[in-house]
Amino acid sequence: MFLLYEYDIFWAFLIISSAIPILAFLISGVLVPVRKGPEKLSSYESGIEPMGDAWLQFRIRYYMFALVFVVFDVETVFLYPWTMSFDVLGYPYS
Amino acid sequence: MIIYTTEVQDINSFYRLESLKEVYGIIWMLVPILTLVLGITIGVLVIVWLEREISAGIQQRIGPEYAGPLGILQALADGTKLLFKENILPSRGNTRLFSIGPSIAVISILLNFAVIPFSSRLILADLNIGIFLWIAISSIAPVGLLMSGYGSNNKYSFLGGLRAAAQSISYEIPLTLCVLSISLRAILDIVEAQSKYGFWGWNLWRQPIGFIVFLISSLAECERLPFDLPEAEEELVAGYQTEYSGIKFGLFYVASYLNLLLSSLFVTVLYLGGWNISIPYIFVPELFEINKMNGIFGTTIGIFITLTKTYLFLFISIATRWTLPRLRMDQLLNLGWKFLLPISLGNLLLTTSFQLLSL
């Protein structure tokens, strides 16, 4: 059906599994009672009124974790072809 | 004129046959997918019930007993209750990100079930890159967590989402390197390579360090205790899940157990010998026949054995949840980066050295 034949079932599985949350939201949209109120719409802050803005400055270390993860992930991607042909290649200089 | 009409009739009937074949092809693809989805759903229901019963046993109380006999329908009752709860969208939150977050978490985990062999020749998608697809797609889940944390207009959800994403990506790399060490040996088929010596041919004995690293990393990926801080009940008030109610919360709940089932299945396939009986056939020569695993009977036994080994690992992770205390966030990230990553690299080096020495 698509270009790569082995991935046909995979794409079909992707479409069906994305239908599952959509189905859940639809059923919930039909069955759910809606009673609006001002208390319901405010954010949760252990029972008190929320102070300040929600989008605060976060520590830089979370960004650095993501950066280092990208570096190591790219390294792993480069390690994979070497691993798969290890019986042919062996160690370098051996 | 006559030739023209018969040719048109031929083309018409040929077109109808081809479109029928196309429809038949589509139905032929849908049946295994729906069977797998049904199997996964039943698996998740069983895990939820198992968790309640095992935790009740550890804490010396009785688990669910009112919903169905022995409380089996408890998970179904919980899910139905969540469907009826009101869907509150936080004001000034990003509604689209709020709704898409849990969906991405569920979809990316559900997609990984396509590459697991449940028995001999019983995989949904028999790809060459099989397990690498799992590694790649499971990296999409932290995106869903970040979306949910940012889209709820809440400081604590935001921080919780950041921490959850940081934890998830930190433990991806030791996981990947352990899988790399295994695929070094068995180029063709990981489960086949473990089937020769029965019980003693498991990858568990060939790579004990890799097994322990994989165990810890997959527990951290699923955000189970002792790596529970993103959804800590006391510290962060359920972290990135704070503002969620109704079926969206249900989707997070399901995603967590789906992830656990997926990790257990992968531990079984990679380390515990998959769908082989694993009794050394030297002692019982007749069982060597069953080890061939052909036909419907052999396939069913294969599925049964896979599920047994999976539930063994599930029991271990559920018991771990109710035994060990929770790790602090910096201890968690220290463990992932400074301890597990060098050890898994060392494991890869060790495996390649053994491979070289035996050649």
Task: Give the helices and strands, then pairings.
The complex is a heterodimer of chains A (about 90) and B (about 350).
Chain A (H helix, E strand, L loop, with lengths): L7 H24 L6 H4 L19 H24 L1 H4 L5
Chain B lengths: L1 H57 L15 H10 L11 H17 L18 H9 L2 H11 L3 H16 L1 H14 L17 H4 L1 H14 L25 H25 L15 H4 L4 H27 L7 H30 L1
Helix pairs in contact in B: 1-10, 1-12, 3-5, 3-10, 5-6, 6-13, 7-9, 7-13, 9-10, 9-13, 10-12
List keywords for this structure.
heterodimer, A: 94 residues, mainly alpha, 4 helices, 60% helix, 0% strand, flat, B: 359 residues, 66% helix, globular
Summed up:
With 94 residues, chain A is an all-alpha fold. Chain A is 60% helix and 0% strand.
Overview of this protein structure:
Chain B: NDH is composed of at least 16 different subunits, 5 of which are encoded in the nucleus. Chain B: Its EC number is 7.1.1.-. Chain B: Its main location: membrane. Chain B: It is a multi-pass membrane protein. The complex is a heterodimer of chains A (94) and B (359). Chain A is mostly helical. Chain A has helices spanning 8-31, 38-41, 61-84, 86-89. Chain B is an all-alpha fold and 359 residues long. Chain B is globular, with a radius of gyration of 24 Å. The mean pLDDT of chain B is 83. The interface between A and B is large, with 55 and 69 residues.
